[in-house]
Amino acid sequence: MSHAARSFAVRRIKPLVSDAAWARLRDPLGRRAARGPAAKSRTEHLAEMDLTQLAKHFRTDKWGNHRYTPHYEYHFAPLRDEKINVLEIGIGGYAREGRGGKSLRMWKHFFRNAQIVGLDIADKSFVDAERITTYRGSQTDPEVLQRIIDEVGELTIIIDDGSHRSEHVRASFAYLFPRLADGGFYAIEDTQTSYWPERGGSEDLDDPTTTMALVKSLVDGLNHEEFVDEAYEPSYTDRHVVAVHCYHNLVIIEKGDNLEGTRRRAILRARYATPA
Ligand SMILES: C[S@@+](CC[C@H](N)C(=O)[O-])C[C@H]1O[C@@H](n2cnc3c(N)ncnc32)[C@H](O)[C@@H]1O
After folding, report:
1. Each residue of 142-156: b (16+ CB within 10 Å) or e?
2. Fewer CB near the terminus (10 Å): N or C of the chain?
3. Is 164 a catalytic residue?
4. Calpha distance 105→55 (Å, rounded)
5. Sign of the C-alpha dihedral, residues 193, 196, 202, 203?
């Protein structure tokens, strides 16, 4: 019942009935006016959940097997109502027909106005719905990655929950990070595989080909303005990674302009000063 109808009832009906009759009338009126959880639509109800509640509701392992959702909530909450495009690599269910889509549904209800896009090596078109679009292809295929950008538009959030093989993770990042929106986020999940040769990683912590080697190089790049070698040419990621948040098995990379300036001149002056 609308506020106007409720106040009409209070003014016009209440004076005409006994206290007991009004009490009987008022209770259901009050419940409906307060719009308790039972009266809410499913969409309204889901839109009020936090990300961990949504992960439990849609049964994605981003909470449970993993503990990713509080980290995502921390970084993504300011974007919750924005009209953005979110891409997740890896829709779930692998080759099993009719399986997958849990996290895409979770993101849809977390990001109330976003377009949610999923990419999977297997056909997951059954997951397509209002504000959810799926693509079939490999995360290493620049053609499908470019087609997504051309058709969907600029991506503000990219989550790599695909094959988790270092070679694939690095290929997707190399293609997509330069095309990510300024101020956007690039997340890489399940980075534990970086240490597992069986999953395309390496036990050698200094192996330069792994996912975590990429992440460590981004951390160095954050400080590129402090490198003493004046001939050093900053890379794209040196100039555009502004933060690297490393959590257990999850990395969230922030994009922006990493050009704050340096105070290294004093060091250089001292180093190259000619002795008197
Ligand atoms: C861990 S599941 C994704 C789970 C889902 N994001 C969720 O949280 O509910 C990984 C998915 O990545 C897909 N995949 C594996 N290799 C891929 C590749 N090279 N490119 C794209 N998707 C791939 C698999 O088919 C599988 O469905």
Report:
1. eeebeebbeebeebb
2. C
3. yes
4. 9
5. positive
Separation CA 101–CA 26 (nearest Å): 44
Question: Per residue in 202-220, pLDDT tens?
Answer: 999 999 999 999 999 999 9
Residue 261 burial by Cβ neighbours in a 10 Å radius (0-12, 13-18, 19+)? exposed
Of all protein residues, whose CA lies closest to atom 18 belonging to ligand 1?
138
Q: Please, what's the largest Cα pairwise distance for the chain?
A: 104
Q: How far apart are CA 52 and CA 69, in angstroms?
A: 5
- Reported as half-sphere exposure (CB side, CA atoms, 13 A), residue 42 has a value of 2
Q: Is 139 helix (H, G, I), strand (E, B) or coil?
A: coil
The atom of ligand 1 lying closest to the CA of 162 is: 12
Residue 241: what residue type? Answer: V
Over the stretch 159-209, which tens digit does the pLDDT of each residue have?
Answer: 999 999 999 999 999 999 999 999 999 999 999 999 999 999 999 999 999
Distances (CA, A) of 223 to 11, 48, 234, 246, 262: 69, 39, 10, 16, 9
Relative to the CA of 122, which ligand 1 atom is closest? 25
Asked if residues 184 and 178 have their Cβ atoms less than 8 Å apart, the reply is no
CA 210/CA 218 separation, integer angstroms: 13
pTM of the model: 0.86
d(CA 109, CA 236): 33
- CA atoms of 275 and 178, how far apart (whole Å): 45
